[in-house]
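Students often ask why inverse folding is considered easier than folding. One informal answer: many sequences map to the same fold, so there is more than one right answer. In these notes we will look at a single instance of the problem. The structure comes first.
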């Protein structure tokens, strides 16, 4: 009796086809890239320099966001749209108000002596604050600093801050430092 062999399918090229399909899908698909807040952190201080710095109360404005996304700037409740103007007034202190930040005359390299604000914006939020409210407040604070920098650049160089070359941008950054302090989020509900 003759033995019959069962026909088999040639599977040697299936691994190659699967590999080619895998490469095709890896090349043609797009990956979402998460974009975060673009912030430049200050350089790390050496251990010898790390000390508690006494800051005059008038030089700090506290921006608080609670778990209901209500905003308090200083001691005044505010809408997000009002934050920028309040921070600009705080940073510039146009009327030399004794309740707003003092200025320190600093020799800005490449510019000369300039009265730099000692103002610091302190952002505090609750753990229950929505991400949307947090980002909106962050954007308004940064927008305020950008407006003051643009004003300084226009007044002294006739161009907006973004249009300046790197050397002039450094002068503007030294004259209008972006002083933002962010506290650890708190859980106000639990207290």
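Output (designed amino acids):
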């Amino acid at each position: 009796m003759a033995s019959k062999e069962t026909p088999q399918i040639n599977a040697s090229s299936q691994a190659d086809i699967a590999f080619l399909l895998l490469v095709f899908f890896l090349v043609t698909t797009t990956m979402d890239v998460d974009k975060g807040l673009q912030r430049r952190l200050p350089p790390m201080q050496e251990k010898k320099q790390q000390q508690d710095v006494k800051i005059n109360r008038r030089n700090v404005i506290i921006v608080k966001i609670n778990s209901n996304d209500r905003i308090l700037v200083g001691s005044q409740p505010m809408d997000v749209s009002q934050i920028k103007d309040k921070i600009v007034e705080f940073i510039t202190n146009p009327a030399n108000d004794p309740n707003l930040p003092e200025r320190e005359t600093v020799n800005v390299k490449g510019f000369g002596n300039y009265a730099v604000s000692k103002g610091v914006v302190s952002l505090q939020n609750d753990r229950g604050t929505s991400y949307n409210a947090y980002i909106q407040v962050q954007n308004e604070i940064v927008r305020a600093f950008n407006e003051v920098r643009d004003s300084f650049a226009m007044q002294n160089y006739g161009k907006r801050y973004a249009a300046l070359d790197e050397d002039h941008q450094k002068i503007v950054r030294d004259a209008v430092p972006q002083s933002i302090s962010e506290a650890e989020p708190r859980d106000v509900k639990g207290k």
